[in-house]
Specification:
heterodimer, A: about 450 residues, mainly alpha, about 0% strand, B: about 80 residues, 2 domains, 2 helices, flat
Chain lengths: ~450, ~80
């Protein structure tokens, strides 16, 4: 927790500096060139040099020089001016933030599979002179290959589909509604983001940006990246980092909210053992989902299509080779690329802005709202249902598979040892994945 | 600012939550229906079912044992 505050306060302080730097950047715009071109220009005509001259010209090419002597009016690969602050202190701050991310990933176990490649991608993207994020350069290639066109998140979703077991959901279908309620996290924070932007002067989000930020509340990494690159690619880095950090913080964020909204008796409710699910039901389920998407919400078809394919391949039982590939090698390879591509957007000039702070705050709000809505919905369902429903499983409605379900089960067994809610919580949990994909589809359809 | 951001986003919220709930509600109904149909006409074959059920019972024992162990471990740590 302390670390999070540290991270937030760091961000806050430096966003202030960032604004000052932005304010100053218009003073003198002289050289409109990337760092590489600048050096190339100086070296174009080779003249005989003394040893000191050689050393001097070598120093010109070092990153140290680029950081210590920022050039006014320098442009990045996309022709947008980089402030001198982003060139010098900005990079230093980004290196510090990235080292904090490394620490969180390695020492604290915060979603290391994604935070580690993302942070390393960010480290590479902030190296001066090398311009690794420029189109045609390493990170740029990865970004153009699968992030700009929203391709990598879909491949990840395929693997997630192949890993998901819909058995618990099919055994107790009505718990799917909990996965719907938790999507209030998305839409509630959409209103929150809009209000923050309209009533305070701190940030100025457009509706598209608000929507892209609010999808963090879906607690689903690939969906967040998919929507962010479609609606607000300039905020991709901050949104992805917020989504994955908060997903890692689910065990910290959720339990207090769950306890605050339920009574001790409610938390001790024991749920009936679910029935055994027929294999054919599991096989048909992904087809039902994709047909519904086809009829109602084609905008969610890329996400749900790859998800349903992964699941169908797994449940069919005849293409284990493909299903294993999706669950292991494919998802691992894509994770590396996805991490680097997202990390690329952690460049000082893009990340160190007040908006990033807003995204962090709204993301946290979104997670809390989703959890609360899920728990409240479960309380209501418990009142009207014949079979008892433990309200704790409502919190698992935020996707974050399987972390949220585990948290629900853990809080439940703390209240009443031996009360295992895990399988019951998996129902709303996987429904949450469908719910957030549907919500994503709705947001995409609005902006078409 | 030309558009009322909050007003627009409230409308999005109504639309979004309505569609998410409607979608999942219909999905639940279809799943219930399909469970009825499938279990009536394609029940898992009896001889096959007998064999796995023993496995399942045993598995349940294993799961219970594992779960108990985990709870114990969590208590300690």
């Amino acid at each position: 927790m302390k670390l999070k505050y540290l991270l937030l306060s760091l961000l806050f302080v430096f966003t202030l500096f960032g604004n000052v730097a932005v304010a100053n950047e218009h003073e003198g715009a002289t050289a409109f060139k990337t760092q590489k071109e600048l050096i190339a220009q100086e070296k174009a005509t080779y003249k005989a040099k003394s040893v000191t001259g050689l050393i001097e010209s070598f120093f010109q090419t070092t990153g140290l020089n680029a950081i210590v002597n920022p050039v006014k009016g320098l442009k990045n690969a996309h022709g947008i001016e980089i402030s001198t602050f982003a060139q010098s202190w900005g990079r230093v701050i980004m290196f510090i933030i990235i080292f904090i991310l490394f620490y969180l990933a390695i020492a604290k176990g915060f979603e290391p599979l994604l935070l580690l490649p993302i942070a390393f991608g960010g480290l590479l993207a902030n190296i001066p002179v090398a311009d690794m994020a420029a189109p045609g350069h390493m990170l740029g290639i990865i970004y153009d290959m699968g992030i700009r066109n929203e391709f990598f998140p879909l491949l990840i979703f395929m693997g997630v589909g192949a890993m998901t077991d819909f058995g618990p959901l099919l055994a107790n279908p009505k718990t799917a509604l909990l996965g719907g309620a938790a999507q209030f996290g998305i839409f509630g924070s959409l209103v929150g983001a809009a209000a923050l932007s309209q009533y305070t002067g701190i940030v100025d989000f457009t509706l598209k940006q608000c929507s892209a930020i609010s999808i963090i509340g879906g607690a689903d990494g690939p969906t967040s990246i998919f929507i962010a690159s479609a609606l607000a690619p300039e905020m991709l880095g901050a949104i992805a980092v917020a989504a994955y950090s908060y997903m890692a913080l689910v065990p910290v964020i959720q339990p207090p909210i769950m306890r605050a909204l339920t009574t001790k008796q409610e938390r001790q409710i024991v749920m009936k053992t679910s029935r055994k699910v027929n294999k054919i039901e599991k096989l048909i389920f992904p087809l039902v989902v994709i047909m519904m998407i086809a009829l109602v919400l084609p905008d969610a078809a890329p996400l749900m299509g790859s998800f349903a394919f992964g699941n169908f391949a797994k449940e069919s039982g005849v293409v284990d080779r493909l299903s294993n590939e999706m669950q292991n090698s494919l998802i691992n390879i894509v994770t590396i690329f996805l991490g680097f591509g997202v990390g690329m957007t952690l460049q000082a000039d893009k990340f160190l802005v007040a908006e990033s702070l807003g995204i962090m705050i709204i993301g946290l709000l979104a997670f809390a709202a989703g959890t609360a809505a899920g728990v409240l919905m479960a309380k209501v369902m418990n009142k009207f249902s014949k079979e008892p429903i433990n309200p704790l499983i409502g919190a698992a409605g935020v996707s974050a598979v399987p972390m949220a379900a585990r948290v629900a089960s853990k809080v439940g067994s703390e209240e009443k040892p031996g009360n295992i809610l895990l399988m019951h919580a998996m129902g709303p949990n996987v429904a949450g994945v469908i719910g957030s994909a549907v919500a994503a589809g709705v947001l995409l359809s609005i902006f078409k | 600012m030309d558009i009322d951001l909050v007003g627009e986003s409230l409308k999005f919220m109504v639309l979004g939550m309505a569609i998410v709930f409607a979608f999942l509600f219909v999905l639940v109904q279809i799943v219930k229906l399909q469970a009825l149909i499938i279990n009536k006409y394609f029940p898992e074959k009896a001889p096959e079912a007998a064999q796995p059920s023993a496995d399942v019972a045993q598995e349940a024992h294993h799961v219970a044992a594992i779960v108990a162990a985990i709870t114990e471990f969590r208590k300690q740590s």
